[in-house]
Structures are given as C-alpha cells and as structure tokens.
Amino acid sequence: MTRRAAYEARQRRRANLIAGGSTVAVLLLVIVLVPLAPGWEAVRASFFDGEIFLRTFPDLARAFLLDVAIFAWSVPMIFAMGLAIALARGTNNPALFPLRIFGAVYVDLFRGIPVVLLVYLVGFGIPGLGLPRPWNSPYIWGTVALVLTYSAYVAEVLRSGIESIHASQRNAAICLGLSERDTMRYVILPQAIRRVVPANMNMLVALQKDVALLSFIGPVEILRQAGIFKSLLANFTPYVVAAVIFLCVTVPATRYADYLMNKDRNARS
Amino acid sequence: MPGPRLSLRGVTKSFDDVAVLKGIDLDVGRGEMLCLIGASGSGKSTLLRCMNGLEPVDDGQVLLDGIDIAEPGFDLGPIRQQIGIVFQSFNLFPHMTNFDNVCLAPRRVLREREDSLRPRVEALFERFGLGAHMRKYPDQLSGGQQQRVAVIRALAMKPQTMLFDEITSALDPELVGEVLDVLRKLRDEGITMVLATHEMGFARELADRVCFMDQGVIAEEGPPDMIFSAPEKERTRKFLASILR
Amino acid sequence: MKTVIAAVAATLIAGSAMAAGHCAAGKTLTEGKLTIATGNPAYYPWVLNDAPEAGEGFEAAVAYALAEEMGFAAEDVTWTRTSFDQAIQPGPKDFDLNMQQFSITAERDKVVDFSAPYYTAPQAVLTTQDIFVAGGTSATMAFLKEVQWGVVASTTALPVVMEQIQPTKSPLVYDDNANVIAAMQAGQIDAALFDLPTALFTSAVLMDNGAILGQFDPAAAENPDQFGALMPEGSALKACVDEALDALKADGSLAAIEAEWLQEATGVPLIK
C-alpha cells in the first residue's frame, strides 16, 4: 500500500465511524425520547394499532389496485396529449397558428387551476350537463381532469426538452433531406424525451398521489377506503397502512428509474 | 451533362447588417475538388452553407446543374439528397447507433429496402475501416472515427456533390490523417467536392483548384501550385505567410 | 312550542339545576363555561342558519337544554367548530361536548366517550324524482339492490348499505352531503342513505328534483343509528351529561324538542 492509499483508507474509516455513530445516536434519540412524551400512548393507539393494521391491510391493498389502474390508463393519455400540445406550441406553420394559440392557452389554463377544482368541475360538471350512463362515470371524467392538468405540465417539460436540442442536430437532419416531420420524430424528439426523463419521473410520482383526488367524486380508492376505516374505527392507523402501501410502490419505482438512467448513461461511456 | 455542376452568380449574404458574402461568382466543375481557404470569418463556411440552401442567400443565384436553387420558395428537399454536407462538429445523432445514423435518411427519404440498404451500408463502414464500430454509439468513438461516420452518413445518400466544412478542425492533430485519407478515397471516385479547410498541405496535394477567400469575396483562385507557390495578390501572400510561418 | 321548553326549563332551573351545576363544576375546559362543538358548516335541521348560538335547530336546542340542566346559563355556552378528524384525533380537545350527529359505535367508543343517545335516527333513502317514479313508493329491497348507491365516508351509512342492502354495484363514497347531491344531480348515483331529517331537508331544499324513497324502521334495525354527544376519552363530564339527558327524557322535554325541530320526519313510508 502506498502512503497515499494508507492515508485515504484511514480517512475513509474515520468518516464511516462518524457517519455510523451519528446515525445510531439520532435513532436512539427518536426511539428513546419520543415514547417518553406524555401523549405517546394516545398517539401510538391512534396511528400505530397493530391489530387494525392487519385487519385493514387486505381491503386497502385491494383498493390500491384501483389507484394503480387509474394511474395506468392515465399515463399514456397524459403523454399523448402532452406531446400533442408541445408540438402544437412549437409549430411555425402560419396555417396552424390557431393551434399554437390553443396550446399556449391550454398550458396556462390547466397548470393554473388546482387539480381538486378541476376534478370537481369536470367530474361533476360535465356529467351534470345530461350525459347518460355510462358516459357520465366519475372514472371517465375524473381521468379527464387528471389528463388535462398533467398533460399541461408534461407539454411544458417536453417543450423545454425539444428546445434544449441544439440547432446543429436539426441542421444535420435537414441536410440529409429529412422532412421537418421526420426530423422531429426521429432526431429531435427521441433526444428531447430522454433528456426530460427525470422531470417526468417527478411528474409521475406526483400523479400517483393525485390519483387519490378522484375519490372526491366517488371512486373508493385507497385513501378513501382508509378514510372509511378511520371513520368506522375512529383510528388513523388505516392511513399509515395506505402510506406503507404507497411507499412499497413508489420507492422501488423511483429507484428503478434511477437505475435505468444510470445504466443508459454507463452504456455510453 | 455539359456545364459546371455548381455555379454561383453574385451571391450575397448578411447576418444582422454584417455582410459576410459580398458578391461571389464561382463555378465548380463535375468531379472537381475545390478547396476554400482563408482566415476564420472570411465567409468560407457561409459560402458552403449557401451551396445547399442551409443558409438562404440574400441575392444572386446558386445553380445546381443549371437550376437556381436559391430562388425564394424553391423546394430544397430533393436537392439536399444530391448534395451531402459534413460539419466541423460531426453532428451525429447521439441516440442512435452509428449504423442507424447512416441508415436513417436512406430509409426515410430514399425509401430504400432493408435487404439492399444493409449490405450497402456495411460495405461503406468496412471500406472506411469502421466495420467493428457499426453497432456502437457515436460517443463511444474517437473524434476521427465519428467524423468518418459522418462522411459515411452523407455518402449513403449517394450524393453527386459533397461539401466539407472544416471537418478536421475539431480533431486532435493525430486524428486528422485518418479523415483526410477518406477524402483521398473519395477524390478517386469522381465525386464533386468543395472543402473549406485549414489543411494547406492537403489542399496543395489534392485540390484541383484553390480559392482564397478574404472579407466576403474570393480574393484569388487558381491551381494549388500557383496559389501556394506564386500567389499574385498581396493579401494571399500575407495570409499564407501567417499560416505557414 | 318554545314556550313549553321555556316553561319546563324555568321549573328545572330552580330545582335540580343547582345540584347538576355542582356536578359539572371544575370539569369543563373553562370554569363556569360549557364549550360545545358542532360541524363546519352545521346543517339544517340540526342547526338553523349555521348559527348554533341562536339555539334554533334540533341539536342547538338540545345543547342549550343540556346546558341549562347542568346549571349553565345560555350566555355561559361557548360554541366552537370541529371536523370529524379533529374530534377523534389523539391529544387534548378544545371542546367539552361535540354534537354533530355522531353515531355511537363500539369502535368509536374505544377512542372517545359518548353520552347516552339523544336521538335515534331512522335511515332514509334520498333519490331523484326520476328514480322515485321508477321505484315507486313501495320500494323493495330487490329494487334497492340494483341502484347505484352513494354515501358520505364519515357516516355509518356505508356499513348499513353494505350489510342491509348488499347492492350489486359498489357504492360511490363522498366527503360530504354537498358532493353526494352533486353526484346525484350529475346522474352518477341513484340513491343515497342519510338520517331521515337530513334526507328530508336535502330533498326539499337543496335539490330541485329530490325525493324520499322511504325510511328503514329504526326499531327493526339490529344496531339502530343513535346520535350521542362526543366527549374526550375519559371525560369527567360524561356522568353529568348523561344525568342531564335522563332528566330531559324523563320530563318529556327532549321529545318536545324533537317534535318541534324534527316533526316532518313522520309520515315517510317504511321500506320492508
């Protein structure tokens, strides 16, 4: 071992010791101090009741499937719509100018309105115009509300991605004889979409949580089911169960996305 | 077909009131290799970009086989297939393999079938010594290799004319040679080529004709021996002296 | 009717009120004051005009009668507002009593204390005129199983629907009465289960095309829906409140209050 390597090994050992020590100290403080608080027993009974945890878990897990389903059918629509709006905003064709205006208004409008309001407005309002069943379903119009909001955000993200691709890429494609359309489709978009994957991942995590807003207009998804249990049992533990189920999905999902992006990056270098 | 491949008549071009080309008249013959030399900012790159319509000219004509492609509103799509261009910064598409970089335009523009395209492109890679790198991505190659892929990409469209915009300027000195070798091979095939270059030795060795550009005009043109050994104009001499030292 | 209450109250103040006042002494949040919580907003006919201070509406009237029974003058009653969650969350509460149609259940009783019931609520089916016509006045269980139900999440209506009606389609669940009505007017649900007074008010005032399909006989229910005043777990006041309620029941004043504010609740057909 060289002198430098020995020194660095010592430094590393020291850093690890400090990190481990401080972590243990913090954990001990939490584990020892929190239960000493006078209200701890009441809080524990309200939020961490083991029996209620086990009893409500199966129903909550089943309700979570609805969240997953809503998420799954919303995402393709959000990206299709977001892409269409992003392209509409980028168009230079004077004949398509109305489309460009529409895109700008769409983005401003739906990014500006709180999702909750949109869920109510679209979820109760549009069916209230007199649509027959099943076309007045809260599932349909709640999904529409989510798609409107999130596609506006995705459109902006994609547009920034498109604009971040250097003009030389476009020039190279045009000089090979590619049409504007093919240039966008084969050269600009694939790079732009790749570049905004992290921003879109954040969007998807936010969407996963906002799916629960559909419960305001009727569907019994996990948070609503937890609310029902809370009301019946007068206990908040079901919400803790819901949080655990959420984390079981979102943490691996974000880690997997990180992994994919790292892999993609490493494959190139 | 008689007449020059490419003729420029009174071409002018300005960027924000800065005149970059101040009336260029130039003919490029079929199969000719023409080198444009001159200081940075003399208008070489702009002139090249006007030749394939990437930069629209302000005034004057750009005649390709006698057709004025500088006519405002002219559909340049079909023309660009006939004129390949290679840039200083390669401009390969980083999200595609080198092979797909080359195949994209033949697939989308020429609508060439895979069974004829594949062997043709593979042969091009082999010929320029990159057979082992087809499945890699551009950023896995050296600068010289990337620039050769860019040349292959342009060649795959079977252009009759090739424009090279200082294609060795961004390369480390030891990589310049392999790219110039590619140009030597192309010269032997009779493709019409116009190069903007700082490689004086190369221009002298291979060019049929050399144009010295200075401040937006062609200050002097002639065979390389004349330009490099016995230039007539004072400013040509000055430029060469500053370059060769 | 009010004069009856006033008269009853007046006689009581002289007698038992002094003793009851001693009972509540030192057991309220603020000495000499009784802090009562209601919903935000508080709904008709439980509280009129969202103004419990006026003592109008069934729960507001019961609250003032209870207060008097326990020896608090009307001006010693302080009102506050809570949500359901605030009522059951752990930690100290900012009310002595909480009255907002809390159904007494064994599960809830583990976390908070309930007074003896002050009202037994029949469950009623709220629907629209269109469905009413389709279902007829003699709504059968078979019909109720087929319709799309909507209920409020924090009420006991959901278990009632699931266990007694067992509908073929999963009920939709909402945060509050207003959302249930919106869903019904959007045609997304056919029927909703409320306590009868709420259903009557909603049908008559909040909806253009509301109708009451019928009520379930509370006497026939296994666990009738009974409202109690909610108190913090282990509240020292519970005994006093129960004692006062018993007195109100015994002398008929609770029935008088119910007759005054919830009188419309009679004459709705029973669902069999």
Question: Can you walk through the features of this model?
Answer:
The complex is a heterotrimer of chains A (269), B (245) and C (272). Chain A is 83% helix and 0% strand. Chain A contains eleven helices and no strands. Chain A has helices spanning 3-36, 40-47, 50-90, 97-112, 115-128, 138-164, 167-175, 180-195, 197-210, 222-233, 237-268. In chain A, helix 4 (97-112) packs across helix 6 (138-164), helix 6 (138-164) packs antiparallel against helix 9 and helix 10 (222-233) runs antiparallel to helix 11. Chain B is α/β, with parallel strands linked by helices and 245 residues long. In chain B, 37% of the residues lie in helices and 24% in strands. Chain B has helices at 44-51, 77-82, 98-108, 114-127, 143-155, 173-187, 200-206, 224-229, 234-244, and strands spanning 6-15, 18-28, 33-37, 59-64, 67-68, 83-86, 161-165, 192-196, 209-214, 217-222. In chain B, the strands form two sheets. A six-stranded mixed β-sheet of chain B has the order 6-7-8-3-9-10, sandwiched between helices. Chain B has a four-stranded antiparallel β-sheet with strand order 2-1-4-5, covered by helices on one side. Chain B starts with 5 loop residues before the first strand and ends with a helix. Chain C is of the alpha/beta class. Chain C has twelve helices and ten strands. Chain C has a five-stranded mixed β-sheet with strand order 7-6-8-5-9, sandwiched between helices. A three-stranded parallel β-sheet of chain C has the order 2-1-3, covered by helices on one side. In chain C, strands 4-10 form a two-stranded antiparallel sheet. Classes of the chains: A mainly alpha (269), B alpha/beta (245), C alpha/beta (272). The interface between A and C is medium-sized, with 35 and 33 residues.
Describe the structure in brief.
The complex is a heterotrimer of chains A (269), B (245) and C (272). By secondary structure, chain A is an all-alpha fold.
Give the topology.
The complex is a heterotrimer of chains A (269), B (245) and C (272).
Chain A: H1 3-36, H2 40-47, H3 50-90, H4 97-112, H5 115-128, H6 138-164, H7 167-175, H8 180-195, H9 197-210, H10 222-233, H11 237-268
Helix pairs in contact in A: 3-4, 3-6, 3-10, 3-11, 4-6, 5-6, 6-8, 6-9, 7-8, 9-11, 10-11
Chain B: E1 6-15, E2 18-28, E3 33-37, H1 44-51, E4 59-64, E5 67-68, H2 77-82, E6 83-86, H3 98-108, H4 114-127, H5 143-155, E7 161-165, H6 173-187, E8 192-196, H7 200-206, E9 209-214, E10 217-222, H8 224-229, H9 234-244
Parallel strand pairs in B: 3-8, 3-9, 6-7, 7-8
Antiparallel strand pairs in B: 1-2, 1-4, 4-5, 9-10
Helix pairs in contact in B: 3-4, 3-5, 5-6
Chain C: H1 2-14, H2 16-24, E1 34-38, H3 58-69, E2 77-81, H4 84-88, E3 97-98, H5 106-111, E4 112-121, E5 123-128, H6 129-135, H7 141-146, E6 149-152, H8 157-165, E7 172-174, H9 177-185, E8 191-195, H10 196-206, E9 210-215, E10 225-232, H11 238-250, H12 253-261
Parallel strand pairs in C: 1-2, 1-3, 6-7, 6-8
Antiparallel strand pairs in C: 4-10, 5-8, 5-9
Helix pairs in contact in C: 1-12, 3-11, 3-12
